[in-house]
Amino acid sequence: MDFRTVRRVAELLSRLSGRKQEVAVLPMRVQKAPFPAGPEDALPRAAPESVGIRSGYLQSFLERAAADRGENLHSLTVLRHGKVIAACSFAPFDRTVWHVTHSLCKTVTGLCAGILIGDGLLSPDERVADIFPEKASPVARIRWRGLLVRHLLNMTSGASINELASVTQTDWVRGFLDSVPQFEPGESFQYNSMNSYMLSAIICKKTGGTLTEFLQARLFGPMGIRDFHWETCPLGIEKGGWGLYLKQEDMAKLGLLVLQRGKWDGRALVPEGYIREMSRKQSEPPAEMSDYGYGWQCWLWARPGSILFNGLFGQNILVIPDLDMVIASNAGGDRMFGKSGYLSLCETYFGAGVKLPDTCPPDPRAYRRLCRAVRQLEQGAPPERGLAGFLAQRRQRKLNEARSAEIAGRRYVFEPGAARLLPLFVQLLENNYTTGISGVRFSCEAEKLYVTVEEGEQQNTLEVGFQAPVRGKVCANSEEQLVAVRGLWTQNEDGVPVLKLDIAFLEQASTRHIKLFFDAADTVRMRLSETPSKQALQDGAAVVMGASRLLGALSGAVDGKGRMESWLTAIAEPELTGRLEKA
Question: How do strand 523-531 and strand 470-476 relate by DSSP bridges?
């Protein structure tokens, strides 16, 4: 990334951590569409034994995956022989709601490039600068004379500009070509989402339309994938490397398409030769990112011929040809890229050396246990049983009712600052910054507690679910997010009443956590945090931006790392005090 862009990102972080009303470097524009909740073409279902996997084995895999809190799985779908044998959401998430895919969509962009290559409209050996003569200055044409399409496909372009250009520039293609390469194209692997964006821009340029139109005509349309949304750059080009929302059933279909060598219902959508090329090692990522290599816009995996669509914080489609399997998952964990506890678990159950027969004897009892386990995982932790459990639940219910009644009708006023209802990671991705929380109001109706969060003139009223999460919507600058809200009344070590709120953003990898401490009748302290954690956000920023470049850009900082941590704490884990509004 060039120094000027890093400086502007540093300026953005500084604004976010302060009390400035104007935060964004570029004007905000609505990017994410509301979830349409339309019907979907479901894949066929089957009992696991009918396709060679024991129900007990699959149940063990699901339960171990769900138990890893660091992975924070949202949903999981397992296919074998083209049939879904397990589909599970983990409360409060819902696999029928589309979910951000982050970098998983790079592989989708790669598949579209493969279609153009098959059409003869694009070549892996075509010069990128030649495709955009109107954007490439004479200096850029010399500087990038060695950059070919294949270098975008295998992440070896050497580009210094990356996806943080989305918050600092308007013309991303020109910004890419105006930047100075860090090394000669093809010389080394460097993971960079702008490579995928440039592929998206190339597809748009070659076809004369949008990537969304191309998908509807050539890939998603024939596969019955209707409900999707791909965010665009300020000039209307789909981001290519991030910003795609998909339902998990449709993610599984994409894995099945690759498994079937580009064919769908007998029709060749993606050339088989391209699938073969994308599935072999094209570049060598560092060991901390992968043990198996990188293909064309996809990661390679443990079993020969297998590939991984992979996105930040646990968005995955794992394609395992020799087992005839696809595993799709969404999550909101702290792990990034092609290594995680979840993928290690996949290796344990389905990695190299694991053999599975084509069929197993039916086991109705084990299958019923599997179905029961899935229902339980989707409902969340079961209530404590027995007399002690019943009494504990009754005490908690009475406490919830009493504490909620005490605060009903109160409104607390805050000095706006860095605290926002939208999680920081979502703010950064969407370039969507509100003016900061300025007030919180509580009300009760029919023994239900409602919390209204005020950010300037914007108000979001959410019902708090004490027994189970309750669905709602958060609107930030006209951008709508589906959420599920769960609450709990408790107290801290000093006996101060505390209301805990977990606001899961169902279409995102992020969950907002809010704790309200009622220290006195006329004040409330609000403490915010989010999942993925501040540390995960910091690690992600360091990988995307290059830690040394970012820290070097923090002008005037004696301790750049300390300044970075201070900013992230202020904007990811802010704390503020509200005063009770006088009647």
Answer: unpaired
HSE value, Cβ hemisphere, 13 Å, CA-based, for 213 = 10
How far lies 312's CA from each of 186, 463, 518, in Å?
Answer: 24, 30, 36
417 or 59, higher pLDDT: 59
CA-nearest of 497, 429, 501 to 460 is 501
CA distance 303 to 347: 9
Which neighbouring-strand residues pair with 475?
A: 480
State which amino acid sits at residue 390. F
Q: What is the DSSP letter of 521?
A: T
Per-residue pLDDT at 9: 62
For residues 206 and 122, is the Cβ–Cβ distance under 8 A? yes
DSSP state of 292: S
SS3 state at 480: strand
CA 534, CA 174: separation in Å to the nearest integer? 33
pTM for this structure?
0.93
**What was the pLDDT predicted at 10?**
63
**Band of residue 526 on the pLDDT scale cut at 50, 70, 90:** very high
Task: Summarize pLDDT for 320-355 with one digit per residue, the tens.
Answer: 999 999 999 999 998 766 688 999 999 999 999 899
Of the two residues 407 and 29, the one the predictor is more confident about is 407
Domain segments of the chain as ranges: 35-350, 388-580
What residues form DSSP beta bridges with 580?
412
Helix (H, G, I), strand (E, B) or coil at 220: helix
| Measured CA angle at 156 (ends 154, 162), to 5 deg | 100
How far apart are the C-alpha atoms of 253 and 535, rounded to whole Å?
A: 33
* φ and ψ at residue 240, rounded to 5 degrees: 80, -50
Whether the ω angle into residue 532 lies within 30 degrees of 0, i.e. cis, is: yes
The answer on pLDDT for 2 being more than 60 is no
Statement: residue 91 has pLDDT above 90: yes
Classify 247 as helix, strand or coil: coil
pLDDT tens profile 366-404: 999 999 999 999 998 776 678 887 788 889 899 999 999
Class of domain 35-350: alpha beta
| Range ranked top by mean pLDDT from 14-23, 29-38, 296-305, 531-540 | 296-305
**Which residue, 81, 44, 43, 86, is CA-closest to 359?**
81
Which residue, chain included where needed, has tokens 């194209």? 185
Averaged pLDDT for residues 228-239: 96
DSSP string, 388-441: HHHHHHHHHHHHHHHHHHHHTT-EEE---SS--SS-HHHHHHHT---S---EEE
Contact 240, 69 (CB under 8 A): no
Decide if pLDDT at 551 tops 50: no
Domain 388-580 listed as CATH 3.55.40.10: no
Q: Helix, strand, or coil here: 454?
A: strand
Q: Cβ of 388: how many Cβ atoms within 10 Å? A: 9
List beta partners, residue 179: none
Beta strand ranges found along 228-374 (DSSP E): 228-230, 244-246, 263-264, 267-268, 299-300, 307-311, 315-320, 325-331
